[in-house]
Amino acid sequence: MRNEWIRMEGLSKHYSATKKVIDIHLVINKSEIFALCGGNGAGKSTLIKMLTGMMKPTTGKVLLEGRDLDLRSHEYKKQFSYMPDEMLFPRHLTGREVLAFFARLRGIGDDKVNDALQQVGLFEVRDTQIKHYSKGMQQRLSLAQALLPDVPLRILDEPTNGLDPFWVFRFKEIIQEEKRQGKTIFFTTHILSLVEELADRAAFLEEGQLKLCDTVDSLVHQNGIYIPLEKIFFKSPS
Fold first, then answer.
1. What tens digit of pLDDT does each residue of 80-110 get?
2. Domain 1-79+152-164+183-237 grouped into CATH 3.40.50.300
3. Whole-number Å distance between alpha carbons of 99 and 85
4. pLDDT tens, 28-49?
5. Which one in 26, 90, 98, 154 has a CA-CA gap of 20 to 30 Å to 210?
6. What are the respective helix, strand and coil percentages of the chain, to the nearest 5?
7. Any idea where the ABC transporter domain is (predicted)?
């Protein structure tokens, strides 16, 4: 497909006979917001780690615009930024020092550091040490480092964890603006109301297996009737 950006073909990761991510086939399109949903232990972070090259798949591959690339190559890593589900910052550094470090790794100037701090509401506390940051402030700093580089794809693992309602609202605004600028957003979450509000498409993982994948509009509107994603995903087996 002309609009296709990343294709995952048969991605699997086997930890043991009972714990595994099995045979994932997914396509991420250009300039879309794609949500990967599921509960704790469903395999979302494992899939993210395979996609980012942090974990080698047991089987399968990832294609970038139809090309089979080494996921640990510099060429591939230049295509995305990554926000992990938990990022531990050095507590003695300030917010600005942390972002300046990530900026230098990417060859990014200080003006972009200030822009990112403004974007996540941390500019006024940029010279405060991380040890004085709340959980939500550290989560916003993690988002800021993912927003620094001008790359086509943002990969965000549970990005709203620890955010208060206002910053969940601001997160949605930030992500929608990223899409308007042509970015592709791939994020994991267990908050299905967020998916309904934000995502173009969604996939559901359960015990390492892909259960559903479709546009959010198609999932919640069936035969002309609106059905919340929560009811679709958590419905009792027939």
1. 999 999 899 999 999 999 999 999 999 998 8
2. yes
3. 18
4. 999 999 999 988 888 999 999 9
5. 154
6. 35, 30, 35
7. 6-232
